[in-house]
Amino acid sequence: MTRNLVIVGAGLAGAKAAEAARAEGWDGRVVLVGDEPTAPYERPPLSKAILRGEADPGSARVHPAGFYRDHDIELVTGDVGRIDARSRRVLLAGGEHLDYDTLVVATGAEPLRLPAPWDGMSGVPQRRTLEDALRLHDALRRATRVAVSGAG
Q: What is the reported pTM?
């Protein structure tokens, strides 16, 4: 009987949990669920080398290309609608579900966004995801004036 390990959260912690499961001999199915359409990456380079254009976005990846395939780790993209612990099932927002024997929740944290007069205004980017960092990099190259809010 195949055992299913589902890891909700495809950031650094989730990617390392999948890696550790395989390294420690988990021979069942491993599914890593993330809400971004990319392989897991580390966030610190987004506000440093990648934002400055000094590094390729791929350099922020937690693992090299092919790692997940080579270690039989499935990457699933999508938002989790809910976790049903009673039926041991992760329900994805798109309607699919993943049954699990073991569940790891590695969703991390979302930064607190304080209400501000510029919320929702065009030309005021956030920097949270790889996509945000690339969009901000392009905007900074064209900018003549810049204001930064936040100290993270």
A: 0.80
